[in-house]
Specification:
It is built from ten helices and 14 strands. It is of the alpha+beta class. It has three domains: 58 residues, Arc Repressor Mutant, subunit A (Orthogonal Bundle); 204 residues, BirA Bifunctional Protein, domain 2, CATH 3.30.930; 44 residues, SH3 type barrels (Roll). The strands form three sheets. The protein has a seven-stranded mixed β-sheet. Strand 8 and strand 9 form a beta hairpin. Helix 7 packs across helix 10. The N and C termini lie far apart (45 Å).
């Protein structure tokens, strides 16, 4: 009912819609209309009401809201099936439990908070209220090898989103983190659902530290938030919608075979290119110059005159003079 009322108000954007008109259209009482309007105001909608004139919608909330987010969407597929929860253990895990007939390409699951969020190698990802914690189910037209590059595409899409919306020059820290001034601001987790010999579906999990203070994170974490950087809260619905739009373009580009373009875009945001880095693999530390990544996503360093490649899941990377979280 709340969404039907919002649809009616949107049709007359900026104009008043009488309570009687809403009541007649939706077959509810005037008191029922008033109650729904009060609930929308409590949810963050700026709705003006005037006697004998009715109601008009002035502004949608900046907190996550399904209807408000859907109004912002410009995608063809991503987010067209959208599920928003107050709390989940993990949005990635929720998507893994979908039955095949329900696993629709582009399905997006968002939780206002997670109580068991995790990143690469099952590391804990703290996910308090005010962040953007979402997962996307993809059925890409890609081989398994190319599907693995979608985590690179996701990093590029988030870096572009932060730059476009807020002017934030975030860097991508290989393989799956975004950092600002050496502190983590977002993370990515890609997981193949189903058999590894063929791509049936891929789940992309994305977490962005947004509208909360550092006091809500463990002090040992080298992290930051958009609130800390910008000094104000941002519109989470606009952030999610813009990210999904840019990501969809990146996915389409990869499906069309633009691997070199993806590598170039990823490299333009990469942290530590042509700098000395240390890589720890199975307890052995290698020092070399970070040269970039291969088409398969492997990190390349120049070590004692030889080129070495490392795959994700094996290493940690720390640029010299700058701490970057694992």
């Amino acid at each position: 009912m709340r969404n039907k009322i919002l649809d009616l108000l949107k049709l007359k954007q900026g104009e008043y819609v009488s309570g009687e008109s809403i009541s007649d259209s939706l077959n509810i009482t005037r008191a029922g209309v008033w109650k729904q309007i009060q609930g929308l105001k409590e949810a963050g909608y700026d709705i003006e009401g005037q006697t004998r004139r009715g109601y008009r919608l002035l502004k949608t909330p900046s907190a996550l809201d399904e209807w408000a987010l859907q109004q912002e969407l410009r995608t063809e597929a991503l987010g067209r099936r959208l599920l928003l929860f107050e709390e989940l253990p993990s949005t990635n895990d929720w998507l893994k439990n979908l039955t095949p007939q329900d696993a629709e390409h582009g399905t997006v699951v968002i939780a206002k908070r997670q109580n068991s969020g995790h990143g690469r190698m099952q590391r804990l990802w703290e996910s308090p209220q005010g962040g953007l914690w979402l997962s996307i189910l993809l059925k890409p037209r890609l081989s398994l090898g190319d599907a693995a590059k979608l985590t690179l595409s996701t990093g590029v899409a988030m870096a572009q989103t932060l730059k476009e919306l807020y002017g934030i020059e975030a860097g991508i820290k290989w393989p799956n983190d975004l950092v600002y001034e050496g502190k983590k601001i977002a993370g990515i987790l890609g997981e193949v659902a189903g058999e590894w010999n063929a791509v049936q579906s891929l789940i992309l999990g994305v977490g962005v530290n947004a509208n909360f203070s550092l006091q809500q994170l463990s002090p040992k974490l080298p992290a930051t938030t958009l609130l800390e950087i910008l000094g104000k809260e941002i519109n989470l619905n606009g952030l999610a919608a813009t990210f999904l739009f840019i990501l969809e373009k990146e996915i389409q580009s990869l499906e069309q075979g633009d691997v070199q373009g993806l590598i170039q875009r990823w490299t333009s945001f990469a942290v530590g290119i042509n700098q000395s880095v240390q890589i720890n693999r199975a307890g052995i530390v290698y020092t070399g110059i970070f040269k970039g990544i291969r088409e398969n996503g492997e990190l390349i360093i120049s070590h004692e005159g030889q080129e070495m490649a490392f795959s994700s899941g094996e290493v940690t990377l720390r640029a010299e003079g700058q701490y970057s979280p694992n």
